[in-house]
Amino acid sequence: MDAFNALTLTGEKTTLSPSDIENFGANLKGELIRSGDASYDECRAIWNGMIDRRPALIVRCGNQDDVIAAVKFARQYDLITSIRSGGHHVAGKAVCDSGLVIDLSLMNKVEVDPKERIARVQGGAKLGDLDEATSQYNLAAPVGVVSETGVAGLTLHGGFGWHSRKYGLAADNLLSVDVITADGRHLRASKDENQDLFWALRGGGGNFGVVTSFEFKLHPIESEVWLLMTLYPLSKARECMEYFREHMPNTPEEFSMINVFWSAPDQEAIPEQYRGLPVLVSFGCCLGDPDKAEKTIAPFRQISEPIADLSARMPFKEVQKVLDEDYPNGRHYYWKSVYINEISDDTIDRLIEYAENRPSALSSIDVWGLGGQVNRIKPESTAFYQRNAPYMIGIEANWDDPDDSQRNIKWARAIYDEFKNNLDAGLYLNFPGFAEEGEELLAKTYGPNYQKLKDIKAKYDPDNFFRGFMNLSGNGSR
Ligand SMILES: Cc1cc2nc3c(=O)[nH]c(=O)nc-3n(C[C@H](O)[C@H](O)[C@H](O)COP(=O)(O)OP(=O)(O)OC[C@H]3O[C@@H](n4cnc5c(N)ncnc54)[C@H](O)[C@@H]3O)c2cc1C
Q1: For a pocket test of ligand 1, which of 430, 434, 465 has the largest count of ligand atoms closer than 8 A to its C-beta?
Q2: CATH 3.40.462.20 occupies which residues in the chain?
Q3: What is the pLDDT of residues 369-401, one digit of tens each?
Q4: pTM score > 0.85 for this model?
């Protein structure tokens, strides 16, 4: 084997010894992919087609020992390292240039203990793996709303989904985690062991170690729940948003909603004259007794005359798959978010204007209703600090032609800039754009928790080996 070059954490070139690489690869249960290997391009590709990074090595870990070996190998050469689980974070930091990727995607097993209502989830599992395993026992873990998303990134940065109003964030439902720290040690963190690390991992992202396993508290779920999916013409968006603003807060917490300014899909269920036109989708899910749920969502299905009403009763794991095909791998994505304090008349007008002026019909603006249990948990009790926002605007620029990148990104940033001072609460780090802004934004995002997080980082990763996707120790600009 020829000498093999890579980059160190300080940005210098280093040459990896061929025999070291050989030994490292030979002892893995999983596989080691090098640039030049047949599967290299497939393995370095992630969900966001805008990201085109070329790591020196990709370790597709087969078990926890592989993760330990990968951390130790990277430390031996002081290599730039990234952690990949679901590969769905928009900023694409799951893959690094010229360094080593610790890829957990082969580690996707889920074990459910139905009696204790606990799921043990390997670090590379996707939401769909988790939903599939738990639904067999009519149980569910509070995670996000698209089954292809990675459990790890979503949970470590918070995790909003259909259970959030009732049971809190994904991170709030963690019981323990297994972590490989920067010195290659395996630690367990929970409310009883390494409490500071457990606190930091619930919102602090990938800055502290590689989480190889998550233990979630599960909640009972009916064998069928109600999906709300009613499409209104954009001309009715004002009426729908006013109705949402007035009535959503009084609904049971089993019900959650996202108002999606989007385009009517090209589907048989949509009358031909509306296909491709801008719409407002009242999108939601009501857990709990299906008969009651049907009554809860009924008024949101008839706010005005809909274009189509695709609402239906179905198993929860199917609700989780409804949006999967709208976010294919390899499309171009730039997603940002901003918390807002209220949905004023002016906000509605501006969102309608932005929806009308989307450079790509694939793009959407999503107004999430938050609150409930997320709100009731004290902001200091986990690293995730911004718990009081009643709403979040998710800005999703989605497009196919690389030549359209600049105008799509500009559109998303304009919405963010317009609303970012509304609550001045920093970012939701699962929808952060490409993390162009650094320290100041992190300080806002973590509020009074920020200094404690940095102290815990210094304790567990004093050399700043794990840069996370926004680096807590530095300026977040990598
Ligand atoms: C289609 C789609 C739907 C989404 N829906 C929701 C939603 O409903 N609710 C919501 O809250 N968010 C949602 N998100 C955002 C999503 O939560 C984030 O993109 C999340 O970070 C993805 O996790 P991942 O494991 O796929 O990330 P990856 O891209 O694999 O990793 C992102 C970063 O997380 C860290 N990380 C990942 N794995 C580990 C690990 N095992 N140990 C330590 N650090 C790790 C690393 O810093 C890494 O760079 C959605 C995203 C997409 C693309």
Answers
A1: 430
A2: 225-423
A3: 999 999 999 999 999 999 999 999 999 999 999
A4: yes
